[in-house]
Design goal:
CATH topology of one domain: Tetracycline Repressor, domain 2
Distance between the termini: 38 Å
Strand content: under 5%
Helix content: 55-70%
Radius of gyration: 20 Å
Order of helices and strands: HHHHHHHHHH
Largest sheet: none
Shape: elongated
CATH architecture of one domain: Orthogonal Bundle
Number of strands: 0
Number of helices: 10
Structural class: mainly alpha
CATH class of one domain: Mainly Alpha
Length: about 220
């Protein structure tokens, strides 16, 4: 059974203020980073570091002692929230030739959804896309290198098509529809403030089945 989706970080109202507590260097850096993740997910990346320092109970100069620029802090947020949740095991699952397409995509996307569908992951990505675009640019670069080629390759293998030719625009759009449909679950909940599906695992599986049926109808041997 796939792991449950859960919130990773407290809201600002829940964040403990520890202004006078003595922390080690590593603990203080983590305190700032955790606070920044919560702060940017609620206020956006335009939020001021002075306000962030006040929220987590430290001085503004102390924050800059650990993170000399706002850009450096945002880069650490990216490493923590996005790179920190990436699993090389996902790549291994998609490369496993002994498993059929539906099973491998379901296994991957259910675990992927459990790791990314949190308010900080979804909202920071959106906020960054509306400002400097640095986080979407980096993360989509990772997807284009590590994930999308594997999904397209395995889809072609399932359909009995050549695996090494360049993907067509229609193939890419169908694949983006699958991946974007998983991400949309989080958009609906943490951007639109609308209730999401009660059974995310089933929703993920349904979207994978729809993707495979569509791929077969559009690109399978019967479609030629």
């Amino acid at each position: 059974m796939p792991p449950k989706i859960k919130k990773e970080f407290p809201t600002l109202s829940e964040f403990p203020v520890k202004a006078r507590q003595r922390l080690s260097t590593a603990e203080r850096e983590q305190q700032i980073l955790t606070g920044a993740i919560t702060f940017f997910s609620e206020r956006g990346l335009d939020g001021q570091t002075r306000d962030l320092a006040k929220e987590i109970g430290i001085t503004h100069p102390l924050l800059y002692h650990y993170f000399p620029t706002k850009k450096a802090l945002i880069e650490r947020v990216y490493e923590e929230v996005y790179l920190g949740r990436w699993k090389t095991q996902w790549e291994e699952w998609l490369d496993d030739k002994s498993v059929g397409l539906e099973e491998k995509l379901t296994r991957f996307y259910q675990d992927y959804a459990a790791n990314i569908l949190t308010p900080e992951w979804v909202r920071i990505l959106i906020f960054s896309g509306l400002t400097d675009g640095s986080i979407p640019d980096q993360y989509l670069g990772l997807l284009k290198e590590k994930l999308f080629p594997r999904i397209l390759r395995e889809t072609r293998r399932h359909l009995g098509l050549p695996e090494k030719t360049k993907a067509s625009e229609r193939e890419n759009e169908l694949m983006w529809g699958l991946h974007g449909g998983i991400f949309y679950i989080g958009i609906r909940k943490w951007v639109y403030n609308q209730p999401g599906p009660l059974d995310i695992s089933q929703t993920v599986q349904d979207r994978i089945v729809s993707y495979i049926v569509s791929a077969d109808a559009l690109f399978g041997k019967k479609a030629k």
